[in-house]
Amino acid sequence: MGSAGLEIARAKMVDAGVDPVAIETFAHYYRLLEHGETGLIAESSIEPVDIERLADADVPADVAADALRQTAIIKLNGGLGTSMGMDRAKSLLCVRRGLSFLDIIARQVLHLREKYDAPLPLLFMNSFRTHEDTLEALARYENLAVDGLPLDFLQNKEPKLLAKGLIPASYPKDPDLEWCPPGHGDVYTALRGSGLLDRLIERGFRYVFISNSDNLGAVPAPEVAGWFAESGAPFAIEAVRRTPSDKKGGHFARRKADGRLVLRETAQTAKEDLAALADLERHRFTSTNNLWIDLRALRDTLDQRDGVLGLPLIKNTKSLDPGDPTTPEVIQIETAMGAAIEVFEGATLIEVGRDRFVPVKTTNDLLVLRSDVYTIGADFVLDLVAADVPYVDLDPAHYKLVGEFDKRFPEGAPSMAKASSLKIEGDWTFGHGVEIVGEVELDADTAQRVPAGEVITGTDG
Fold this sequence. Notes:
Blueprint: H1 4-15, H2 20-34, E1 46-47, E2 52-53, H3 61-69, E3 71-76, E4 94-96, E5 99-100, H4 101-116, E6 122-126, H5 131-138, E7 152-154, E8 158-159, E9 161-162, E10 179-180, H6 186-194, H7 196-202, E11 207-212, H8 222-231, E12 235-241, E13 251-255, E14 261-264, H9 274-277, E15 285-294, H10 295-304, E16 314-321, E17 324-334, E18 348-351, H11 363-370, E19 374-376, E20 382-384, E21 391-394, H12 396-399, H13 402-408, E22 415-424, E23 429-430, E24 435-442, E25 449-450, E26 455-457
Parallel strand pairs: 2-18, 3-6, 3-11, 6-7, 12-18, 21-22, 22-24, 23-25, 24-26
Antiparallel strand pairs: 1-13, 4-5, 8-10, 9-17, 11-15, 12-15, 13-14, 16-17, 19-20
Helix pairs in contact: 1-2, 2-6, 3-8
């Protein structure tokens, strides 16, 4: 059985109709938490990694095309973009030319299907908050669904636990806030619990490519599919070299104890190791969250482990109501899907270009994506045309929320193809056709409207 807190949580999940596999997975992590597991990975226990580059791989075109025909696609699509002031699926956000993330993803896949004569089923892992909006937005693409497979499956949910006592939190004012997602590591549990893992294998699919819906660089490219097929690995992650904007993010390393690759997230790093986490020379690679998995290897490993992969625990402490810091402190039990790299014997990494990692987590990222740093071709794939991706830091007081952000760029994003960085303090509004060149800083003391057609040249422009 278990402690009183776990039994209360179990009963709550059963009453809510949560899948039994997800309940057992939650119970596994609850016990770890109860016994003091922190999920921390000490710097002394790991060493840096060096990895193969996709640019050096020589994959025959026929191998690449054949691998693509055996591949299914999963997009993680449970996020609401609440940090940017949204209350619907973040993937509904307009990116370019009136197209949302969902529009571009759908068109990328339809183009690849036609070009390579590949079925490429596309599945979205939605949350109960994004399910309806997503399917409504995709309804215009009549041929997107593959016969016998749904367009989406649902991410599981679990109760938030009071930090004091590890009892499921109660919040009658807004009962939805009593629940949280288990992190994107839940994709494996949800795939198995929904029956989709077996269905994909039965329909002849060998591989699955999993990525975030807010990363438009994550296209199931045949050259990567071919590399993965030739590698014979059960599991692989696309990695990129870290930049200053990645200093606070996770990184790959090798565990000294057994030589396994690991993914260490910030939440798994002790305070005394944060400097090492931020050392871009020591830990050079971060995850794109673009994963390639052998479906049969995943099924066999889940079978061996009774449905629980045993990913490293991530203990996330927050306020019960994220918008009200006076509400009780709660713990959210989470896992990261990339952490499964340490579960599979023979798992590997491949270094890819930054064009395959274009995440939009903030309006800083959104401004770059809407600018001319990238073009979108007939295949709807992003093409980096600037020499490099500029660093953007917008004043959160005026630009953090999408609604406020849009008011300050009413006629579109400025040209940033020649920009190194853009830092804005204060309240600036941009006219049509503004161009940013070099390293530009706009300060609060002179906040104003930038006239249409203005060229702002910075220190290195």
